[in-house]
């Protein structure tokens, strides 16, 4: 026997269920008057630095149907490649850009939408710059533990080719699942939960 | 979203990557007893990666964003002078990380059915009555000790289309946002003594009984308010992060 390390176990995940919008985007689902606005609904203001972009997409199940009860969150660096976070020690990020957004998938078309700025490049562990990317997290009914992935930009071919995370995808053709479609300033990022085009999800 | 961090060890922002997630402790993505997971579970291996800056960082939610009734579900949707119907309870606890340290300034959001087991949602089809004074959502931010609390009514159990006769045990949904995007967690809280916990296919997707017991809030008699509300205590553990004492990262920690 040795000393007990004394660590706790992470609380087990449970599905967000069919009504995650009640909790996280109540105004969107008709519960008005509790919060002024849904958290994470707007990411930029008129002083935010950088190039404005729009990212839309759907979360698609194994039968090809878009989820209408999902919730998507994104997290990204500012235009200069700095995160607005206490754990960011390289400098101060744009005070007019929190870098975090939250969107329900729409009840009609299953689309999520983010109005944001194009992120700058952020270093990997070894100091190499990663290609510009946006981190995604997806929860919904039927998803037992939230899914992490990343979106890269289609007009950054050279940076993508040198990106350390994309380089680790063994099935090379699957790297394409992390690259959005569309072009400046409107990008489309469809997330496939299963099938031929299953998105690469991350254990990070 | 600006941090008014104060007090103790949490003052020093941490920059270590998170402990690897013990995926055998969590429910697997594909759990056929919970039928919705069949078409919504990734089938290929996840790409494992030690967290980069993109995962170890996260936004800070300031206490200033909270409204006075945000953590009072009995009143935050009720007409003035009225209140939600049901058993009045207080739910409180601490958000800790795997090292047992309090997670300060964590955003805790919760949502639930009303006392009859009915959600306020246009897709909800259960015949139980809506309570005009109950919305079903609330939020809090942990203090320096990692503590949160809210007041609500005990949610009812409800039937759901899965097996022929499946019911959810009484539960409250929780979303927790700690200090890093990779710590993001959604879970559900159950109530001590409820025999329905052990019949539920969603609970049953969790492989380890101890992980299920960790989701069951204990009746906290000590904190029960006489003639007012019973208390339940529910602690939540987020991923811990490695110390960075001997790490020397090029990006300049
Ligand atoms: Fe529920």
What's the topology here?
The complex is a heterodimer of chains A (204) and B (253).
Chain A (H helix, E strand, L loop, with lengths): L19 H5 L27 E9 L10 E5 L24 E5 L6 E7 L15 E7 L7 E6 L4 H5 L2 H4 L13 E3 L2 E3 L2 E2 L9 E2 L1
Parallel strand pairs in A: 1-8, 1-9
Antiparallel strand pairs in A: 1-4, 2-3, 2-5, 5-6, 7-8
Chain B lengths: L46 E2 L4 H4 L31 E10 L9 E5 L25 E5 L5 E7 L4 E3 L5 E3 L2 E7 L7 E7 L9 H4 L4 H5 L2 E4 L10 E4 L2 E3 L15
Parallel strand pairs in B: 2-11, 2-12, 9-10
Antiparallel strand pairs in B: 2-5, 3-4, 3-8, 6-7, 8-9, 10-11
Bound molecules: fe (iii) ion.
Strand content of chain A: 15-25%
CATH superfamily of chain A: Aromatic compound dioxygenase
Helix content of chain A: under 10%
Shape of chain B: globular
- Would you identify the regions of chain A where 5 or more consecutive residues have pLDDT less than 50? none
Estimated structural class of chain B: mainly beta
Mean pLDDT of chain A: 97
Beta strands of chain B, count = 12
User: Helix/strand/pairing class of chain A, anyone?
Assistant: mainly beta
Order of helices and strands of chain A: HEEEEEEHHEEEE
Which CATH class of chain A applies here? Mainly Beta
Total DSSP helices of chain A: 3
Question: Could you say what the CATH architecture of chain A is?
Answer: Sandwich
Arithmetic mean of pLDDT of chain B: 93
**In percent, how helical is the residue content of chain B?**
under 10%
> CATH architecture of the domain at 57-229 in chain B, please?
Sandwich
Report the CATH superfamily of the domain at 57-229 in chain B. Answer: Aromatic compound dioxygenase
Number of domains of chain A: 1
> Which oligomeric state applies?
heterodimer
Most strands sheet of chain B: 9 strands, mixed
With helices defined by DSSP (H or I, 4 residues minimum), what is the helix count of chain B?
A: 3
């Amino acid at each position: 026997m040795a000393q007990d390390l004394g660590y706790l176990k992470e609380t087990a995940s449970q599905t967000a269920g069919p009504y995650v919008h009640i909790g996280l985007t109540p105004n969107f689902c008709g519960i008005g008057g509790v919060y002024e606005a849904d958290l994470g609904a707007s990411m930029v203001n008129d002083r935010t630095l950088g190039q404005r972009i729009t990212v839309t997409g759907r979360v698609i199940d194994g039968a090809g149907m878009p989820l209408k009860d999902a919730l998507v969150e994104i997290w990204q660096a500012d235009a200069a490649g700095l995160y607005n976070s206490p754990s960011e020690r390289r400098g101060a990020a744009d005070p007019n850009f929190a870098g975090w957004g939250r969107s329900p998938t729409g009840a009609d078309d299953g689309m999520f939408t983010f109005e944001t700025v194009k992120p700058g490049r952020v270093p990997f562990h070894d100091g190499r710059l990663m290609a510009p990317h946006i981190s995604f997290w997806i929860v919904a009914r039927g998803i037992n533990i939230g899914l992490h992935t990343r979106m890269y930009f289609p007009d950054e071919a050279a940076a993508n080719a040198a990106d350390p995370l994309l380089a680790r995808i063994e099935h090379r053709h699957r790297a394409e699942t992390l690259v959005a479609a569309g072009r400046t300033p409107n990008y489309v990022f469809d997330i496939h939960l299963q099938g031929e085009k299953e998105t690469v999800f991350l254990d990070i | 979203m600006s941090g008014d961090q104060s007090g103790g060890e949490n003052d020093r922002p941490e920059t270590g990557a998170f402990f690897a997630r013990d995926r055998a402790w969590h429910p697997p993505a594909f759990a056929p007893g919970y039928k919705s997971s069949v078409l919504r579970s990734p089938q290929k291996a996840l790409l494992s990666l030690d967290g980069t800056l993109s995962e170890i960082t996260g936004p800070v939610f300031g206490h200033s964003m909270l409204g006075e009734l945000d953590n009072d579900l009995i009143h935050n949707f009720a007409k003035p002078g009225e209140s939600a119907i049901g058993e009045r309870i207080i739910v409180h606890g601490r958000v800790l990380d795997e090292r047992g340290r309090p997670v300060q300034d964590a955003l805790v959001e919760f949502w639930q059915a009303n006392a009859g087991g009915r959600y306020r949602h246009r897709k909800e089809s259960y015949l139980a009555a809506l309570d005009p004074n109950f919305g079903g959502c609330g939020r809090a931010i942990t203090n320096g000790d990692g503590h949160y609390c809210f007041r609500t009514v005990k949610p009812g159990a409800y039937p759901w289309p899965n097996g022929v006769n499946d019911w959810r045990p009484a539960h409250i949904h929780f979303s927790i946002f700690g200090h890093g995007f990779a710590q993001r967690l959604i879970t559900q809280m159950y109530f001590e003594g409820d025999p329905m916990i052990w019949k539920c296919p969603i609970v049953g997707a969790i492989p380890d009984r101890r992980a299920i017991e960790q989701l069951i809030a204990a009746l906290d008699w000590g904190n029960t308010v006489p003639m007012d509300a019973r208390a339940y205590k529910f602690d939540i553990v987020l991923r811990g992060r490695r110390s960075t004492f001997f790490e020397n990262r090029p990006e300049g920690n």
